[in-house]
Amino acid sequence: MSDNIKVTIDNITVEVPNGTTILEAARMVGGDVAPITMCYYSKLKGSGGKCRTCLVEVSKGSEKDPRPMPKLVASCRTGVMDGMEVKSMTSERVKDAREGVTEFLLLNHPLDCPVCDQAGECHLQDLSYEQGKQGTRTDFTRRTFAPEDLGPYIQLHMNRCIMCFRCVYTAEQLTEQREHGVLDRGDHARISTCISKALEHDFIGNVIDVCPVGALTDKTFRFKNRVWFTKPVDAHRNCTNPKCCGEVRLWMRGKEVFRVTARKDEWGEVATASNGETGWICNECRFEKKDTADWIIEGPSRIQRTSVIAQGHYAGTVGTAGKSEKLIDKVIGKEPIYTLDIHKVSEVDNPNVHLSQIAGPAHSTDFKHDIKDR
Amino acid sequence: MNLTNRSVAVDRSPMTFSEKIYIPGILKGLKITLSHIFKKPATVRYPEETRPFSPVFRGLHVLNRDEEGREKCTACGLCALACPAEAITMEAAERLPGEEHLYREEKYAAKYEINMLRCIFCGNCEEACPKDAIYLSETIMPANYRRDYFVYKKEDMLITDEQVKAKRLKLQKA
User: Fold this and answer.
1) Structural domain boundaries enclosing B115
2) A132: which of A128, A200, A257, A309 fits an S-S bond (Cβ 3.0–4.6 Å)?
3) Is residue B27 domain-resident?
4) Residue B108: which pLDDT band, with cuts at 50, 70 and 90?
5) Is B8 within the bounds of a domain?
C-alpha cells in the first residue's frame, strides 16, 4: 500500500504516496500547475469539495483503466491512481469551467475591494484576476445580509462570504466549543452565531487567517492601513499558551505594529511552525501584542515578487537595514540642511498619534483630538 | 561627419569695405526690429488673458463629491500605490452613524495629502481611482515662497458644497 505511484499532471510526472489527492500531487509539482483553492485547506481536516475552483480534467484514469473521466473532477477530493494523467492549466475545458465557477463565486460578492481590508491578499481577487472573466453578465441586485457583531476582535462581513466552511472547520478543530456555524439554506445560508454572541475562544482569531475573502477580518486592524503599505516582518515571542507556537508575521509601518497574523506558506495557508505543528497563533499574540517590544524580530518575510505586498519593498533589507552612511555627507562634507521637515507640515503619520494602539477602527473623533493638539 | 546638410562653416575671411563701415549692417538690424512693430506679439497679458490649454492638460488635483455632496474617496490607497513620485499619503477612518451625509462609503479618508513638490502631474492617480474621486483640473499649480504651502491637505483639494450645488443647478436648467 505504501508504494509510491506515478501521476502525470500537465505533462510533468511526479511520484506520490498512495492515497494522495490530485491537488496535493499538483502542489508537489508546484507553480501554476496547482489549481487555486478557495475552500480546500490542507491544514484543516475535512475541508474541500465545496467551491469547485480546483476542477481538473483527468484524461487517463489509470494504468489499468485508461479511460478518461467523463466529467471534470474536483482535484481536492479525488485521489490519484497509478499512471493517471491530469490536465490542469493545459486544458481548455478546465479553463472554461473555472471561469464559470469564478463567475458564480462573484455573483453575490460585492465589488468593495477599495473598502475591504483583505484586498491585496485576497484569494478571490487572485482567482478573478487569473481565471475570471473581464465583465459581469448579471445586473440584478446582490444578496445582502444585516451586519452582525462578533465581538471586539473579529469583523464579519457576511456579504463577502463565499461559503467555504473553512472558519467552521477551524473553530471545530482548534476550539473545544464551536460557537458559530452556517445557518439557513441555499441562497440564505450565512455564517452566524445564531443569536449575536461574541466569539471569544483563545484560538478563534485563526478564522481570520483561513478566510479566503474579506468576510472575517481583524477588527483591531480595520481600516488602519492597506496591506501593501505595511511591511511584513517575521517575529516570535514566548507565548504562555502551550498550544500557541508564538511564531507570527508582524505587519509594520515604521516602528508601529499594525497587525499580527500567522505566517503563510506559498499556498496562502498557515505555515508549519518550527516545532513541526501548524503555526496557529492565539488571540493574545494576534490582538493584544501591538508593540515592537513584545516581539523578537527575526527579519523581513519572504513575499512573492508578483504580490502587490512586495510593491515598494526592497528584497532582503525590509525593516532590518541599519542606519546607512549618508553618501551626501562625504560629498559635501557636512550634514545636508533639510528645508522641509514633512512631519511639521503633514497631518498623516503624525509621530504623536499611534493608530495601531486604537482598539478598533479610527473614527472622526480620534482625528478631531489630533487636530486640537496642533 | 555632418548629421544634416544645413551645417555651415564659420566664415573667417577679412571683412569687406561695406562690412567695415557698419552702417548697412546696423540698418539691416533696425529693419528687422521695426518690422516687429507690425507683427502679432508672441506673449499674452497673463492674468487677463490665458493661453488655450491642451485638452489633456493636467493641473491641480480635485477631490470630488457625489450628487448628494458626499465625499467619494474611500482611502483605498490605489492612487498612492500608482503614484510614481510617492507624493500621496492618507489615513482612513470608519464612518460613524450620523455621518452618512458626509461620506459615501463606510470607510473614508480622514487625512489625505498630496505633496505638490513631489507630484509630477502624471495623472496616474486619476487613472487608478476606482471611485472617480480624484481628478486633475486645469488649474496651474500656484507658486509660493514657502515650502510647507505645497503640502495640500484634503480640505485644500475637496470641491466645496457650493460648487456641487451650482453644478446641480446647471444640470437642472440644461
Assistant:
1) 61-173
2) A128
3) no
4) very high
5) no
- Nearest residue to A29 (alpha-carbon basis) of A43, A47, A46, A15: A15
Cell of B146: 514657502
Mutate which of B90, B99, B106, B107 to disrupt the A interface (most A C-beta within 10 Å)?
A: B107
- This model of the complex carries an ipTM of 0.83
CA distance A313 to chain B (A): 12
Q: What is the pTM of this model?
A: 0.83
Q: Which domain holds residue A365?
A: 327-373
In a domain, A121, yes or no: no
Would you say residue B55 lies in a domain? no
CATH at A53 = 3.10.20.740
For B46-72, what is each residue's pLDDT tens digit?
Answer: 889 888 889 899 999 999 998 888 999
Angle of helix A92-105 relative to helix A123-131, nearest 10 degrees?
140
Of A112, A226, A340, the CB nearest to B148: A340
Cell of A365: 473623533
In this predicted structure, the answer to whether residue B10 has a pLDDT above a threshold of 60 is yes
A160 touches chain B (CB under 8 A): no
Arithmetic mean of pLDDT, B147-171 = 86
**Chain A residues within an 8 Å CB radius of B113:** 346-348
| B21 occurs within a structural domain | no
- Out of B77, B80, B89, closest to residue A346 by CB: B89
Distance from CA of A47 to the nearest CA of B (A): 32
Is residue A39 within 8 A of residue A60, CB to CB? The reply is no
User: Is some CB atom of chain A closer than 8 A to the CB atom of B126?
Assistant: no
Together in a domain, A12 and A95? yes
Q: Which residue, A180, A179, A178, is CA-closest to A191?
A: A180
What is the tally of structural domains in chain A?
Answer: 4
> Quick check: A144 contacting B, CB < 8 Å?
no
Instruction: Tell me which DSSP letter residue B111 carries.
Output: E
B90 touches chain A (CB under 8 A): yes
Please, are residues A41 and A47 in contact by the beta-carbon 8 Å criterion?
A: yes
Residue of A nearest to B99 (CA): A364
How many domains is chain B partitioned into structurally?
1
Find out whether B22 and B95 touch, Cβ atoms under 8 Å.
no
pLDDT along chain A (374 residues), means of 10: 83 92 93 91 92 93 92 94 92 94 92 92 92 86 90 92 93 90 90 84 92 94 92 91 90 90 92 90 92 89 84 58 63 78 84 83 78 46
Q: By the 8 A CB rule, do A38 and A60 touch? A: no
Residue A114 in any domain: the answer is no
